[in-house]
Every structure is written in C-alpha cells, then in structure tokens.
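I am hoping you can look over what I have pasted underneath with an eye to the fold:
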Amino acid sequence: MTTSPLIVIIGAGVLGLCAAFELQRRGHAVRVIDPGAVNASLVAAGMVAPAMEAAIDDASVEQAQIFRAGRDLWPLFANASGIELARRPAEWRGGDVDGIEARMQALGFEARRAGDRVLTDEDYQVEPAQAVSALRQVLGDAVVQGRVSSVERAGGLWHVSVDGETLQASAVVLATGAADAVAGLPPAAHDLVAAIQPIRGQIGVLTCALVDHAVRGPGAYVAPMAGGSVIGATMEPGRRDTAPDVTTGERLADAAWRVLDQPPEPLAIEWRAGVRGASADGLPMAGPAPDGEGLFFALAPRRNGWLLGPLVAAVVADAVEGRAPSQEARALDPRRF
C-alpha cells in the first residue's frame, strides 16, 4: 500500500496528461493511471483551432472566448513541456465561404479572403504523437499502466484500487474520457460521468504530404502530419466502437478530395478511430465534482481536447489548490449541470 498522499489522475488522454503536467509543474506529487486502451487523443489531428472551430460550430461569443483563452495558453505550455507547436495558416474552402468569414469576424477572429477561400492565422496545430510523448517524458515514472476498479473516500483520503494495489490520494482527477463511471464515485459525480455522450471519430493517415497547412471544407479537413497528412474527421454520436469502417473511410476520402478540388488518387490510407466524450453543452467539465471532497473533473472536451488541454489543466490545478475560479473556470465548472 502506498502511504504518501498523491494526486491521482485517472486517465492518460490529453486532458489527463496536461493536468498532471500542470500539477507537477506547481510542485504536486502526481500519479497518472493509464488504462492502455485506444486513446482518442492520438486518433486526432492535433488542431488548436479556435477560429475555425468557433465558426464551423456557430459558437456563441462566450464559447469563442473560451476557445481563444485555450489557444492563448499554448505557447508557454508548449515551451515548458517540450511540445512542438506549429503556427500555420488555416483555410476554409468550398461551401458557405461568406458565412465562415462573417462568423469568424463577428467573434473577433482575424479572417481574410483569398478568392473563393477564407484564411486565418489564429489557429495552431500540434502533432499528437509528439505531444503525448513529450508530456510522458516530462512526467516520467508518474505515468503507470493499470486499471482502476474502484475509488473510496475514507479517513480524509481517496483510496484508489489499481490492479490489486491501493493508492492513497489527497485528490483524484477524473480524466476518463467517454469511459464508464468508476465504481465508488459519489452519486452526483457518477451521474455526470454516466451522462457524457460518446462520439466516435474516424481519421485517415497518409504518408504523402497533400497540404502544408490545414485545409477545411464541407465534410472533411486535410492537414499536415509528421511524415505525411491526415484526413478527418467524422463525428458519430452514440458510437463506442473503434474498428475503422471502410464505407465511412471512403466517404471521408471523397469529401477530402472535394475540399482539395482534386480528382481522387489511389493512395494508401491507414484508417483509425477513437471515441471522444462530450458534455451536454459541448464544453469540457473541468474543476470540482458536484459532490465528493477532493474530487475533480477533466472531462468531455468533445473534439477540442488539444485546443483546451492547457486551459483545463490550469482550471483543475487552481481548483485543487483552492484558488478563486477564473471566468473560464466558472464556465467549465461541472456543477453548472
């Protein structure tokens, strides 16, 4: 049995790793429990894209401000963690060009026309594999593989059962993605986790470079990826399966070629699928759980886990330390539900 109180983070996706890094950077002892399952954070293009995401989803002013705040934390976070942050133009072409441009500008994002395209310099990108590797390297032995079977609050501590071992934790951070609620959670926390909507996403990875910056359009995007390109990505609510679907891949590839305004080419595409988690309003749940002292959420970023990772990490770390919540923390507070 471990006797030194830790902050235990359950889950090793982007939100869990970012929260662990931020807490460790502030001097806390952390332990990240990695279940070793298919990780949606790696089945991603690493978009840090507040302008495009806000325009495509017709976000509110308040949501756009959260996206922008998340993006603004990235340069310092990347520098501290060793993550490579790419700053390239992002482009929209195809349908509703006027609408995308108008929505970006109405939400305060820079956007400019180039013929029948809209470009912005507001969006960044990370390489998910490199980013995860960098965070794991910094965290070192704090990341361990295992499965949490239950948690229990007793004697002022959390007792976390991991593969037959019990870890004693001063605080627990749930970063379990779209997984089932861990046994032993307090009732309200359990119900919030159980209400997270799974959204399956499929992407395709190519070894050839189709673009040198992110290009989006109706039904698909194409973006640079280390060693080639990535085509993405579906949003399939309610699905938890992670086996790539051939028909879905064909449909996505066809949409990508239309976005690029090029005839299809016979390219080898490796299809991958992961499952994201989403809350009822599409924003993450970050901060104190509705019940359970010392219990915190880093959950449900929908498709914006990479964009909002550092922001969620800061919100969680502030909550663990008992700091006054920021404006963003109040917007992401799990107790809003």
